[in-house]
Amino acid sequence: MTQAVAAALAGQARVVIAADAAALVDLRHTISDSRADGGLSLLIIAETVPTLDRALLIAGIGPIAIDAAPAMRVAALDLADGVCADDVLAAARFLAAATSSTGQVLRIGARD
To answer: Which residues form the Short chain dehydrogenase-like proteobacteria domain (predicted)?
Structure first.
């Protein structure tokens, strides 16, 4: 699912898929490599990420967004177990289109 989101946003956002807290380093590299291009760097926090790593990833988005501004926008999707792929894609497209926002973390839960 996360790979499908990355493919759907090709050209609109640089996507980093997090398996653990080390993804913050990957996100920083993505921002450094893309700063001249501007746009959005999107961190997708997979539902399998351990709780402590998830908390570290979420806490890191704000400071990284401040550091990257105004050249780049940074946002994250925090996926819950059982999340619908369509909801993830819709949220990712929303963040890509929301050109005046940075530092946002959207939690995407399962449908009831």
So the answer is: 17-107
Cα-to-chain-centroid distance, residue 79: 10
Please state whether 87 falls in left (phi above 0), alpha (psi between -120 and 50) or beta: alpha
102: its two tokens: 């940075």
SS3 content of the chain, % helix, strand, coil (to 5): 45, 20, 35
Q: CB neighbours of 18 closer than 8 A, spacing ≥ 6?
A: 26, 43, 44, 45, 46, 49, 53, 57
pTM for the whole structure: 0.90
Q: What is the pLDDT of residues 44-86, one digit of tens each?
A: 999 999 999 999 999 999 999 999 999 899 999 999 999 999 9
CATH architecture of the domain with residue range 2-108: 3-Layer(aba) Sandwich (3.40)
Please count the other Cβ atoms lying within 10 Å of the Cβ belonging to residue 108.
19
